[in-house]
């Protein structure tokens, strides 16, 4: 009998170790809804211990409740998957539209920039042409002024210091 008692004590100690292992649960993981409240609904007069001893007569109800619980979980998971797929599709379309819009805007900006650059080139050409025309006109005016009165100074010989003295 002494051996039987020591074996029984060894089994009790093993069970205690197993219970301690169950207690060590990582709290960082998301919580999964427990089935215990569903099983408790079967026979609310009885508080079940941790090992869930359910009377035989309540097993069909417990099975149905667990089946319904799993069905509800599956339904919610499927619905969430559909919502996620819908939002992913919408985000994808949004990004594709944004990409197309950005491409169109880039083309518009490049076109506008080309027009502005063309305008500056034309302005530069016009300024050069006007400067050349004015120089030719001044040269022609100097020649005419020299014919009329040779004592008049030539505009081509006047530098910036002449204009600064007049101010």
Q: How is the topology of this model organized?
A:
Layout lengths: L1 H22 L12 H7 L16 H90 L11 H7 L1
Description:
With 167 residues, the chain is an all-alpha fold. The chain has a domain at 60-148. Helices cover 75% and strands 0% of the residues.
Describe the oligomeric state of these chains in a short phrase: single chain
- Number of helical segments? 4
Silhouette: rod-shaped
Radius of gyration: 48 Å
Low-confidence stretches: 8-27
Structural class: mainly alpha
Distance between the termini: 131 Å
Helix coverage percent:
over 70%
Number of strands: 0
Secondary-structure element string = HHHH
- Tell me the major beta sheet: none
**Beta-strand fraction estimate:** under 5%
**Average residue-wise pLDDT:** 73
Which key features would you list for this structure?
167 residues; mainly alpha; rod-shaped; Biogenesis of lysosome-related organelles complex 1 subunit 5; coiled coil
Quick overview of this protein structure:
Residues 120-147 form a coiled coil. Residues 1-23 are annotated as: Disordered. It is built from 4 helices and no strands.
């Amino acid at each position: 009998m002494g051996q039987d008692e020591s074996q029984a004590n060894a089994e009790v100690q093993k069970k205690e170790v197993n219970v301690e292992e169950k207690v060590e649960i990582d709290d960082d993981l998301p919580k999964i809804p427990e089935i215990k409240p569903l099983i408790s609904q079967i026979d609310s007069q009885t508080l079940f211990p941790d090992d869930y001893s359910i009377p035989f007569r309540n097993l069909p109800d417990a099975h149905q409740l667990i089946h319904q619980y799993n069905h509800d979980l599956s339904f919610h998971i499927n619905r969430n998957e559909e919502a996620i797929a819908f939002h992913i599709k919408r985000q994808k379309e949004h990004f594709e539209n944004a990409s197309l819009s950005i491409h169109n805007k880039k083309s518009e900006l490049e076109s506008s920039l080309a027009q502005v650059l063309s305008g500056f080139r034309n302005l530069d050409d016009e300024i050069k042409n006007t400067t050349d025309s004015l120089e030719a006109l001044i040269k022609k005016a100097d020649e005419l002024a020299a014919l009329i009165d040779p004592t008049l100074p030539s505009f081509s010989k006047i530098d910036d210091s002449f204009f600064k003295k007049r101010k």
